[in-house]
């Protein structure tokens, strides 16, 4: 099982270590540093490394490496999932997952790690169980604690730990009972030069924020559940009812949680909300090139496209860009060679265009690699797959909750090749 | 108000200050001080000096303080064992605390203190906690058993904790069950043979029930445990699959992959025509696709596993090609894996899309990725024949970019395409030659040289091209040198008139100026071949090369099966069996897929133990070394047959029988590929010997070559005596197997020619990693032949076949190497006839006609034994003079006479006589006495033993009587059996 954990920042300093079995020397990380060196970019460090006596499994989140050491045959996915859970928990507790925050709360983090794993076996990873054992810091509480001498550590057994619904604590009380669901869809797509879709799929997620008193039992049903053939659920969802009736029936955790992830595969037709006309060319003669990009709406289902942004990783030889944008602003970062064009709202009457010349380093050959365009966009009140919630029913409690559903479509990994 | 303040006290007297604070009266101050200590500890500072002061803070009601002290204790107890004892009392007391949280915390912490003295005190509290009324305490205690086992295994066994742990599998609380399973699994890992997790239908049922209710981590433990179970039948298998399937929709990817493992394994047992089987296949695809939208680290592990799944069951993801398309901002490790899977999924249906993608990738920035993409185009060409043309033109486009590494990769793969589709795309050679100068990598240079040599007749200036390479011969890598040598010899054989000088130059460079034995030996082989028999040289060097096969890098099937059982583990990431790398897995368990209802192929093969070794040496990957392999094949295996006299068996045969069967066959290939010993004369080579005008130079007589090649010819000599050397008592019953075999006969075989039993399976595929050998023996035109059908029932191609016999009663030995020159692809069969000589070493076998055979291929060495009918050994000149017959008959003592009955034979005496004559049993005289025909017959065995027979046939009586007389009565039984077989055939 998981033996030790090292947190390493992007400059390669180990700033926290935790051992669940015997102590393993830091020198084990040298193998990791070697691989880190070789990979150049931190993103490219292989997640599973073999050393003479240990295995190093790492993830890279928020410019930090979470590096775990294992000694026996352990499912690597288990370790990686757990490491992401650690990062999620830190994020959940302190609002962000960064070196500064972890250092500021080092004792709490240490207590959390101790609570999450016992002898390498996961012990409590559900956020609400953890929060009963180790309360997250709030300004109010730290003031109160200082005055009364009380501590952040709960001294009773968390109620959720052993019940049949470990994700929910008992005795939840709210004056305003409300349940909100956000259906968020991300389009992952690759378009080729001519604008044809090479590949497109939709990653959907239903995020819930449920603040309901007592033990409510909810049923969420869809207008068109047949769209969902590839789903993964929060443990609270009763799978049998989904299989037989295609409804989501569950006792929700308290607060924010991810109810369901789904995936609409490339075999169904995926609507592409915008088209991109682009030409980036470099001349054989002279150190320059031309760039011309226009974006227009395609299948937007009558909604407005917002937050439109184009990111281009230029070839290394490109020194500067002299462009004019009809809408929005552009920046070109010399160091990273990234051109960002922030457009904002897409106006179908007046299509945004970015045009101008690029200067390349004199004397270098014409760049061979074609830069890809990365598109960001948002469409409010639309789930591009067409998924719609039909109703939400509540059983088990008497009161009438306030219910709401929001839809949002975003670009995920949306790439246009040139 | 943040903890970072704890880090700021880096002054000199820090430890001293902390000490004072720890001993303060104020609770709050104490707690702050402990926090500072912990903070220092987390960043690796040594604060062990504060041990006694921290331990003093342990007796407190404040849970947070208590936890902090425990944290400290766990870290430092090991270094201060004597001090740690101070804490024991508090632990024991806390284990009795009314608050379950404190009880659990105490037992948990105690388990983490790895000090022997403390563990002794742990036993009693642990026993209580394992039976605690609160499930939270029980589940914590379950893990504690595993901890304790890690520290002191003997203690755990002595105290009977393992049994208590097993009982917890039946606990009412699913969390307790999950932890008990996890603890038992961990303990079992260090005790591979102990039957700790005794899985039976009852426990399986309990686990499946707990599976639905426990946490995600618990589900992983339970699923991994389930995967070790082997269901009794397909119905049980199906019911487990049905209950595991919902896990595929879990949000935790580790749960999903563990569920996939269970399903992939148990699916093997389901009959393929079952509806449920199809349903299950369909259900597996979406979760695998979903894994690819997770974080890159998860994707990587998922992709490594999908790579295995696609090889085992390509149908699952065959429609999902697009999800493996590479995004430019994927991490490189994800890109490379995706590419690999794309090629595996490539088929005629999607090849256009794949090629378009690959071409796109070939213009990316990352060099490694671009190289692999170019290589992938070549692999597509070889895999999908219809796309070959398009692939070649894509590669040509890429060559036009003149990007150095792209050009080099392209040339390497084009060479492979030539190997796969000879005489089809040679028009592109001109384009390739243009880039000759830009090649600086050995592999690309070697590939280019191979192409020039292979197609020398179509390249006008081939000699100039090769000569230009020759200039820097000694600076080239071995790979290039070997290719250059071969290419120039090829060129010489094709255009002998202009290139004589060149070939001499390269031969002397290779043989005289090189220290590399491979190069030198190959040089000598060519030299001698060219000087002895240029025609033979041509046949050898320019022989048809075997086509290379499409799937070249598939994982060997037995290893794949094992890896499928390890889906989701490190083994699946490394594509190696756990035994090959997991440290501390003392004693290795090899997991196997259960046999399926349809085909139990290799399900219980005893050879699995060697899988580890196999993985170290994966099946030959032809694209990278194909040319070399092909050339060697031609070279190494042909010479013995081209030289005049049949070569005597190789020296490997002289080894003792036990040695041979104990794996000595490995030397077989070595023996054969060894170049002939170099005569001293070669250091003064003279050019006339090389020319065509002197085909048989006196220095190299063929007989000498034969002798050199074959080893001592005296080996066959000691043969005449064996019969007398055999023990006198010969056990009469010869195994019934042979009779059964003959009974099968009937329609097959030639009625009038020499009798040959029908083919039977000698080596079943399940015993030979997919190689099936069936065969028979026949005597055709005076030559004994072993006729075999080699069938490849595995998924990878088989090459490098070789055969060897153990010593046997009649000195049977292969008269030449096994002629399997083309690799045998999956599901392909090949017919081989192996001529046998009878001059091999002799050892009496039991039964007499038993032959032990070893067959080797690129995968392993396999052994089997078969029995040949003795009639194979009846020679053509076995007709005895009448007088001699009479004299001999009288001369042989009556004790040596054996009489047998042949029942149910409906031939008349003439028909019988002619039938037997076909098998070299000669009728010398016929007498008719009282309606009974008496045929006097003789036959001679290859080793000179005469057998005389009297066959009595009575008209109307289907029972014949045979009397056999022979000086070596041991053979009588066999001869009788042959009589029966020959007559009834």
What can you tell me about this protein's structure?
The complex is a heterodimer of chains A (418) and B (985). Chain A is built from seven helices and 23 strands. With 418 residues, chain A is α+β, with helices and mostly antiparallel strands. Chain A folds into three domains: 2-148, 2-Layer Sandwich (Beta-Lactamase); 178-270 and 384-416, Mu homology domain, subdomain B (Immunoglobulin-like, Sandwich), CATH 2.60.40.1170; 274-380, Mu homology domain, subdomain B (Immunoglobulin-like). Chain A has a nine-stranded mixed beta sheet, with no helix packed on it. Chain B is of the alpha+beta class and 985 residues long. Helices cover 49% and strands 9% of the residues of chain B. Chain B has 42 helices and 13 strands. In chain B, the strands form three sheets. Chain B has a five-stranded antiparallel beta sheet, with no helix packed on it. In chain B, strand 12 and strand 13 form a beta hairpin. In chain B, helix 15 packs antiparallel against helix 16 and helix 22 (404-420) packs across helix 24 (442-454). The model of chain B is unreliable at 584-588 and 597-752 (pLDDT under 50). Classes of the chains: A alpha+beta (418), B alpha+beta (985).
Draw up the topology in text.
The complex is a heterodimer of chains A (418) and B (985).
Chain A lengths: L1 E8 L4 E6 L9 H11 L8 E3 L4 E7 L2 E7 L5 H19 L4 H6 L1 H11 E2 L2 E2 L4 H7 L5 H10 L29 E14 L5 E15 L5 E6 L8 E3 L5 H7 L1 E4 L4 E10 L9 E9 L5 E10 L8 E8 L4 E8 L3 E5 L4 E7 L8 E8 L12 E8 L8 E7 L6 E15 L2
Chain B lengths: L13 H9 L4 H16 L8 H6 L6 H14 L4 H14 L5 H13 L3 H15 L4 H17 L1 H6 L2 H8 L5 H17 L10 H13 L2 H11 L7 H11 L8 H15 L7 H17 L4 H17 L19 H14 L5 H11 L5 H17 L4 H13 L3 H17 L8 H6 L7 H13 L7 H9 L7 H17 L5 H13 L4 H16 L1 H8 L15 H8 L5 H5 L36 H6 L5 H16 L1 H4 L14 H8 L1 H8 L28 H9 L11 H4 L11 H8 L15 E4 L7 E10 L2 E10 L9 E4 L7 E2 L14 E9 L12 E7 L4 E7 L14 H10 L5 E6 L6 H10 L3 E8 L2 E9 L5 E9 L5 E7 L5 H13 L1
Antiparallel strand pairs in B: 1-2, 2-3, 3-6, 4-7, 5-6, 7-8, 9-13, 10-11, 11-12, 12-13
